[in-house]
Amino acid sequence: MKNVRAHANTIGVITLSVVILVLGAIDLFRPGGLRFSDLTGRVVTTDTMIRIGILTIVVVGLNLLMGYAGQISLGQAGFYALGAYASAILTTLSTRHGILVGVADQWWWPWLAIVIGMGFTGGFAYLVGRPIFRLKGNYLAMATLGMGIIIYILAGQFPEITGGYDGLTGIPRLHIGTFKLWPMQRYYFLVWGAAIAVIVLALNIVNSRTGRAWRAVHSSEIAAGASGVDIERSKLRALVISAVFASLAGSLYAHFQSAVSPNPFSFRASVQLVVMAAVGGLASIWGAPFGVAFVFVVRDLLRSRLEDVLHVRGSGYELIVYGVILVLIMIFLPEGLTAGGAKLLRKRWRSAAAGDP
Amino acid sequence: MPRIPRSKLARIAAIIVLTVAITALVIGLGSRKNLQPKHYVQLILDGFRGGSIYALMALGYVTVYTVTGIINFAQGEFVMLGALISISVYNMPLPLPPAARLVVAVGSSILLTTLIGIIVERVAIYPARLSPTVTLIIITIGVTITLRASALLIWGADPYVLPAFSTLVLEDHIFRFGGVTLQAQSLWIWGTLAVVLVLLYVFLEHTITGKALRACAVNRRAAQLVGINPSRMSMLSFGLAAALGAIGGIVMGPVTRPIYDMGLMLGLRGFVAAILGGLVSAPGAVVGGLLLGVVENIAAGVTNPTYKSVVAFVIMIGILLLRPQGIIGRGETGGEQ
Description:
The structure holds two protein chains of two kinds. Chain A is mostly helical. In chain A, 73% of the residues lie in helices and 2% in strands. Chain B is an all-alpha fold. In chain B, 72% of the residues lie in helices and 2% in strands. In chain B, strands 1-2 form a two-stranded antiparallel ribbon. Classes of the chains: A mainly alpha, B mainly alpha.
């Protein structure tokens, strides 16, 4: 059984990598002037693909936390913001403050900043989680909710450090030696490389001792504790891992936009991340990219097409559809669109094969 | 668990030291802005006004949480619906004098919002009642998004106003006591809170339905065994929470400018108030709401209004870490392991 699953995961990783490579190559070389966005009727562009890749990294982390460890975070955008701001502040030190001139101009400095951001965010998550997990029940939801909003508000203050509500601009592009990871057709490969690496890492964690401990805690804390699982530490590990992933994604976002401001890290963003995780399936690593892509495509389609059909303007209808989809999925397909949908199809198929009407 | 007197003494000492430190900090910050005692009285009065709304909302959270075990993130949207529906009804061209129009507006707004609360429970919550907490929380978030977006479509993105209850125009009566001002609407708000509390007390203590609701809150399975229908109680709790939210939204209509997205921050603050009160206690919710209103108003007054919501969430995290059973709770649920 285990071998079958491991086998399926390997095939999945290879398939995803090939698809990503082919799509990226189309845009990089443009055979016959063909662009990737032409294939999708301009709905999905390279820009969208990069955003999907970045958020996939965050949502994979949320999957581990919500689906496996059974804890909900309503402030994941806060961790995402910490990563983005860590990169933004550290890489603009020399241009804004004249500190570390010489060091901060090296090509490896932004990469080091990403790692520092991940370390800082992970440590921060540890400090938040440690006292919270001593309590029973889902108190993490409330603590992270408050934390996310505090980070969002503070990011808009302190103009000398965070740039205030206008944010920071002039974040340099990433380089490897002298090779510039830009235009975005190149950056695409970095983002999706990171996303696939995170997916592989998550798949391995889920099938490791830690992952089994999470599942045990999720199904019964008492039974898990009696079997020698350190419940507190196991939940804490999930939170820290998800925060580190979010921070990595935040850094990639900062270098992609070349600017950060508090706006994309609001409570709404945290909610949207939870929606993506829920659509993809809470306990499904593979669902993550699909959940993110689904939300993106539905939103863009609704924005562009619904206006044409219904002659309405504004983002109201789009948001209603969003909310209704979320409720429907949670009621009818709690395992998410991918896993739940596949299960539903299998059931149909099996009953059809058995000759049931 | 018997407490060792010494640790109790240390705890009391810590509380005293903390209180003195915070008071000193407040006065220190206030003196930098040249605040007089009358300014503090003003801040406290206004804090009680906002706190009354938080108290009404916290009661809504507590009602739903104790009966169904769900944290209903849509609570703030009920406040928004209450406020906006009452304004729309009030502005309808009914052949009635303004005072009667206001009464009709208040009544129909509470009824409609209660109905919406019940529909939400039947359509979105009840079918998924056996799901894990994570799923239920996400469902209430979905409901929140849907309600807010619907409000955007119906009312647009502009703020509205409801006339002050005493004067029936935008200008309210203002009482002045030596530099301290008090709007007549504040009295309406406090009066409403008092009436709601009395009605709630009578309902919960002296009617069969209310007693059934409380039984369900104490122990759902035992309540079911003695013939209480938990499905009806779940529906009732959502209806009651929606009504409480609507009442809060209506009375605050004249002092704020109701807008479609007001529910988010209000709802979160009401939730902080509920946490302050321990999430399972109605008196706790009221004390928590009033306290939060006063504390955040003073904090914003001596520093900077942007920090108002930061204060609320810092308090919430502090309470979760130090006293998860709430400030006046005794740790019935959610206590330490």
